[in-house]
Every structure is written in C-alpha cells, then in structure tokens.
Amino acid sequence: MVSTALFTAVFVRVWDQKNNDRLDLRYNSNITTVTPESSSSCSRYIKEYSEGVATKFINLKQEINKNCSTLQSNMNTCLEKCENELRDMKTVILGITSNCSRSIEEYSNETETNFINLKQEIDKNCSTLQNNVNTLQNNMSSCFEKYNNCKREISDIEMAHQRFENDTRLKFGKVEEGHKGNEDMLWYSLMSLGVCEVVLTIILVCCVRKVHVLKRQLDRQLGKGVLTPKPKNMDTKQMHSNQKEAGGLMRSIAVICFNETRIAFYRDLMGDITSDMETVYHRVSKKEDTLHIKSKIAVLFVERNDRHIILESEHEIGDLKVSCVRYIQQNGGHVIVVYCGHKESDNMGDLLCSPSLTSADRHRELRALKDDNCFLSIHKTFSQTQKNNLKTKLKEYIDSK
To answer: Using an 8 Å Cβ cutoff, are 64 and 10 in contact?
Structure first.
C-alpha cells in the first residue's frame, strides 16, 4: 500500500514535468519559425529527451521498488515486533486482570464477611444499649417516685412538727396562765397534807401502843416473854430475788423486734439458745413501747436495709432503735444487737459480724457493743460460734448482780 502511494506520487511528478516541457516547446514554437532543420533537430531533441526521461523513469522506478521492498521488509519486521509485543502485553494484561479479579473477589468476600460481622455486632450493641436505656428509664422513674414520696413524707413531717410546735406553745401558754393560780392551791394542798400527816402519825402511834398493850396481855396469858416473829418462807424469798433485781429489772431475756411478722422467725432462732431461760417477746413500734421492757437482758433483732442502718445516728430520720438501746442501758440492762438478712454474713468462720458492716465502727453505741462481742450479723441462722457466744453472754448477764 505504501509502495503504491510512492509510485503514484513519482508518476504524477514526472507527468507534470513532461507537461511543462511541452508548454515550453509550444511557447518556443510560437516565437521561432519552424524549419525542416529545426523540426528535425526538435524531433531528435525530443527523442533524446524522451529516452533520457524513460531511462530516468526506469531508474527511478527501480529505486522506488528497491526502497519499497526495503520499506516493506522494515514494516513487516516492525509489525512482527509489534505483534510480539502486543501478544506479550496481552499476556501480561490477562495475568494482571486475573490477579485483579481474584484479589477483588477475595477482598469483596472478606469485606462482605466483615460487614456482616460488623452489622451483627452493631445490632447486638444497639440491643444492649436499648436494654440499658430502658433500665435507666425505669430506674429514673423509680427514683423520681421515691423522691416524690420523700418530699411528701418531709412535707408531712414538717406539718406534724408545726402542729406539735403550735400545740406545745398553746399548752405551755395554758400552763403559764394556770401556774400562778396553782401556786396558791399548792400551798393549801401542802398545809392539808401536813395536817393529815400529823393526824395519821397520831393514829399510828395510838395503834402501835394498842398493839404493844395487846402483846403484853397475850404474853402474860401464855407465860412467855415477847413473841418472836415467825420467819418468812425461804423458798418464796429466793424466788422473788431471782425474778427481780435492784431497779425493778427481771432476770429474764427480752427478745425485741420491730416487725411483728418476724416474731415466729426469731422464736425459731432463739429456741435452742434460750431453752432453759425465761424469755419474753416484745414488738416495739413507738418509743412508749420500750417502757414495758423490764428484763435484765434485751436481744434486739434488726432487719437488713439498703443503707445498712442498724442503729440510727443524728443524721437519720427517726431514732426508735437507738432510743430503745439507750433506755435499756440507762435502766441497768444489757443489750445484744443482731443484724438479720445480711448475705455476706454467711460462712464467716469464727467471726461474730461481717467486716463489711463499717457502720458498726462509726456508730458510738454499736462500736461499744461490737467491742464487747454483743453485735452479731447473720443471713438466715446463727453459726455455731455465734450460738456459743450468745449462750455465754446470756448466762454471764443473768448471773451478774
């Protein structure tokens, strides 16, 4: 194709040159007069020129053919190299495409697996988060409800305190108003009591004198001196002394509870320990109930609470338990406190109370009881060590004077 194009270009060039020569001849023929010599010379010239041109054309054609062959050979060589390189490039591209496809497929599979795992983990975390949010909402609702209850209780306490204060002021005012009138009545009463006392003394002296007179008359009749008084029954006296001490306390054990529904449970706990001792069970719901406790030993059962408040302190609302302890101790009695329902008090070994109950070290009365082995903590029952300690303490306090 290239050789054909070159040949066409050379032919056009030669044809144009020939046409130009013809024009030159026509132009020259118009100028000079054509003669036979000139015509012969021109024909010879034309013939020579045509032969020269034909020779040049043949040489040019041969050279063109030679160049075209060389060019064709070079082009074939170049095309062969290009085909080889193209084949190599195609092989390389196929290899790269295969590797890329395999890598893309592996990456796609791995990405899909990671995406599925990530989605599952996100769903799981979302579910956990939703549960936590629901729990938090429930806790917040419960906290708000407790807060509102506390506010209502505080409001009720403040109102009750205000009523108590008003009543106290009113009664105090009435007492002050009647105090002056009562002073005169008091003097009259004292004078009346003095007169009555004098009269009773006189009557008593008369009675004693009459008794002595009767005794002398009886002695004379029996022929004896003064009658010897008959001693009292020793068994009755001993029993009386065993039941009462100085101050009016009985030699018995008072089991005190603040929840009436738990009395049966406390009876089961104390049954083996106090089987041979007189035991009285009391329920204390207000401070006035402590006035009925006349036993020398009191065992207080306190149920577990969230804040582990065993005996109230100055910062707590209410002081029923600590007031009960102080009343019994002030009257000369002995107190043992048992904290029930504490799970950490299981399997304590030889310990009487759980070390986690730090309030026992901060509270003044509890600390003193703990130092004296009179504070115990249990879950549902006493350990053998606690039973032995209780028996020892109860016997020691019963026998003490």
So the answer is: yes
Residue 208, both tokens: 């004693």
Q: Are 392 and 297 in contact (CB under 8 A)?
A: no
Answering whether pTM is above 0.70, one says: no
Mean pLDDT, rounded, for 187-214: 79
Spatial CB neighbours of 319, under 8 Å, sequence gap ≥ 6: 312
Which token pair is 363?
């509270």
CA 64 vs. chain centroid, Å, equals 101
Whole-number Cα distances in Å, 341 to 200, 263, 310, 379:
62, 14, 12, 4
Q: What Å distances lie between residue 312 and 72, 317, 324, CA to CA?
A: 117, 8, 11
Paired with 257 in beta bridges are 283, 301
Can you tell me the distance from the alpha carbon of 208 to that of 226, in angstroms, rounded to the nearest whole number?
A: 15
**What is the greatest pairwise CA distance in the chain?**
233
List for the chain the helix, strand, coil content (%; round to 5): 70, 10, 20
Q: Round to whole Å and give the CA distance between 371 and 365.
A: 10
How many angstroms from the chain centroid is the CA of residue 208?
83
Amino acid identity of residue 27, one-letter, is Y
Q: How far apart are CA 119 and CA 114, in angstroms?
A: 8
Cα–Cα separations (whole angstroms), residue 252 to 33, 62, 268, 391 = 180, 151, 18, 13
Helix axes 320-330, 364-371, angle to 10 degrees: 60
The string of pLDDT tens digits covering residues 206-244 is: 887 777 777 666 655 544 333 333 333 334 333 334 444
Report helix, strand or coil for 339.
Answer: strand
Which of 92, 96, 93, 114 lies closest to 104, judged by CA? Answer: 96
End-to-end CA distance of the chain: 143
Q: Six-digit token pair at 280? A: 């009285």
Nearest-angstrom CA–CA distance, 174 and 256 = 39
Whether 312 contacts 268, CB under 8 Å = no
CA-to-CA distance for 293 and 284, rounded, in angstroms?
Answer: 10
Under 8 Å between Cβ of 388 and 365: no
Pairing mode of beta strands 334-340, 375-377: parallel
Are the beta carbons of 382 and 345 closer than 8 angstroms?
no
